[in-house]
């Protein structure tokens, strides 16, 4: 009987549609509405076109998608903050939502008083709140401030208290919208651990998040919403990988369009300046570095920074998978090939060069860096046009990373140095955490434990 109830649907969303009126310019007062009727023009924006899904009791489901796709609207429909235009939503059990943290808090009331007020909104009786009060206070780590007015709290303290109330109401269904960044690092870790405990106890969880790592660690299933429709659902690691790949492609196409506009504008400016006096040769040499900074080729990120003398210049850069296809999303454990092409302006004057690359996480953590001289104790004989490849096994854990490339002379002078030349993302089927994956072997009483398949 228990096994049957476990499979029972806790949430049923059936052919739900939702639109909003978006006013172009709405008069605020009665006088403005009467005199300026044209200001009441609006457009109907269809946010959810027709979505259907179910969530089983005790299952954790993640909702992903770009901003404006309908994720948060779906969550607000589940909490009954909003109601659908058509279709039905059925939820079984007590619902706790972590959408607008602190909604219902009164600034002049103490933290303790607000716990009672906020918990009662979630449906708890005074007796139930009394039994949970100390647990909520302990979890928030605000005991010394709990009897102070909430208006004296910092924003972090305010969020801690709100999260602590919502997470400790013993809900059957927990709805979470982008709030796992509450408080400092230690408190975030505690919140994440608490969610895993709640899931283990059988609570049904629906999470909206842009953090693929959180989705993959907590959720059993992932639903990708795009333009108000469900584009894909399934195992989080696979859906996330497809989503990241498409988002990266869209971003690159947008940056390429912006770059073309900038180049077109630069060409027009050059044509307009054609009648001016020609720049002296010595000024051209002095401006070589500035020129390399300003003109970024198509293979560079828009945010890239280019330095160097320009005597050797990169003409192409690509990250390739094992099949030689250019990619922007890799998995932990993949073999990656970095292919660089270059042009040497005067090979006879610059016979040797040292090529290197570096990888940085998006928060600027330097993950790795090396070059030809470090790896082989040699230098590259430069050609008028040449190609360099380096292959490496990707041990990075999920996240977004940037690639730096450089080539410099024996005396350390940089011919070309492009920071953040390309961005790429990493996904993983593993549950370990940190920056990179270390190959580990466990031994218990001298006996090696067997590795999981694929480890």
Kindly describe this structure.
The structure is a single chain. This protein is of the alpha+beta class and 455 residues long. The chain has two domains: 2-242, Rossmann fold, CATH 3.40.50.300; 299-427, abc- transporter (atp binding component) like domain (Coagulation Factor XIII, Chain A, domain 1, Distorted Sandwich). 30% of the residues lie in helices and 32% in strands. The protein contains twelve helices and 21 strands. Strands 10, 12, 14, 15, 16, 18 and 19 form a seven-stranded mixed beta sheet that branches. α7 links the parallel β6 and β7. α4 packs across α5, α4 (111-121) crosses α6 (155-167) and α5 (126-140) packs across α6. The two termini are 37 Å apart. Mean pLDDT is 83; it is low at 1-6 and 283-293.
Helix/strand layout:
Layout: H1 2-6, E1 9-23, H2 30-35, E2 42-56, E3 60-64, H3 71-79, E4 86-91, E5 95-98, H4 111-121, H5 126-140, H6 155-167, E6 173-177, H7 185-200, E7 204-208, H8 212-218, E8 221-226, E9 229-234, H9 236-272, H10 281-286, H11 288-294, E10 305-307, E11 312-320, E12 329-331, E13 335-344, E14 352-361, E15 366-371, H12 372-376, E16 380-381, E17 385-393, E18 399-408, E19 414-427, E20 443-444, E21 447-448
Parallel strand pairs: 3-7, 3-8, 5-6, 6-7, 12-19
Antiparallel strand pairs: 1-2, 1-4, 8-9, 10-19, 11-13, 13-17, 14-15, 14-16, 14-18, 18-19, 20-21
């Amino acid at each position: 009987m228990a096994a049957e109830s476990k499979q029972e649907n806790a949430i049923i969303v059936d052919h739900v549609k939702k639109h909003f009126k978006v006013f172009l310019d709405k008069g605020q007062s009665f006088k403005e509405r009467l005199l300026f009727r044209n200001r009441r023009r609006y457009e109907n924006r269809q946010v959810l076109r027709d979505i259907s899904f179910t969530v089983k009791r005790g299952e954790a489901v993640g909702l992903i998608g770009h901003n404006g796709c309908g994720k948060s609207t779906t969550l607000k429909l589940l909490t009954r903050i909003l109601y659908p235009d058509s279709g039905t939503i059925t939820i079984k059990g007590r619902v706790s939502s972590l959408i607008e943290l602190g909604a219902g808090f009164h600034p002049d009331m103490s933290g303790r008083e607000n716990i009672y007020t906020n918990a009662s909104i979630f449906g708890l009786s005074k007796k139930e709140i009394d039994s949970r009060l100390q647990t909520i206070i302990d979890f928030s780590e605000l005991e010394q401030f709990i009897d102070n007015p909430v208006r004296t709290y910092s924003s972090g303290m305010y969020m801690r208290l709100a999260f602590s109330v919502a997470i400790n109401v013993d809900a059957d269904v927990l709805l979470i919208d982008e709030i796992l960044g509450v408080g400092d690092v230690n408190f975030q870790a505690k919140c994440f651990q608490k969610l895993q405990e709640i899931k283990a106890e059988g609570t049904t969880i629906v999470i909206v998040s842009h953090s693929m790592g959180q989705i993959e660690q907590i959720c059993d299933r992932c639903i990708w919403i795009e333009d108000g429709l469900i584009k894909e659902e399934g195992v989080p690691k696979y859906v996330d990988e497809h989503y990241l790949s498409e988002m990266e492609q869209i971003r690159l196409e947008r940056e390429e369009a912006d770059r073309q506009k900038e180049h077109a504008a630069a060409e027009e400016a050059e044509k307009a300046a054609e009648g001016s006096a020609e720049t002296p040769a010595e000024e051209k040499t002095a401006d070589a570095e500035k020129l390399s900074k300003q003109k970024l080729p198509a293979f560079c990120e828009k945010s890239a920074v280019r330095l160097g003398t320009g005597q050797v210049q990169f003409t192409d850069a690509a990250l390739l998978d094992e099949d030689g296809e250019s990619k922007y999303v890799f998995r932990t454990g993949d073999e990656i090939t970095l292919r660089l092409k270059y042009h040497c302006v005067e090979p006879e004057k610059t016979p040797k060069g040292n090529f290197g690359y570096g990888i940085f996480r998006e928060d600027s953590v330097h993950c790795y860096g090396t070059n030809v001289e470090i790896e082989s104790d040699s230098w590259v004989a430069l050609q008028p046009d040449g190609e360099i490849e380096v292959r490496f096994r990707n041990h990075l854990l999920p996240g977004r990373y940037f690639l730096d490339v450089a080539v410099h002379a024996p005396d350390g002078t940089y011919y070309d140095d492009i920071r953040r030349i390309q961005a790429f993302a990493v996904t993983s089927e593993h549950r370990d955490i940190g920056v990179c994956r270390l190959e580990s072997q466990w031994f218990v009483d001298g006996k090696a434990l067997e590795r999981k398949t694929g480890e």
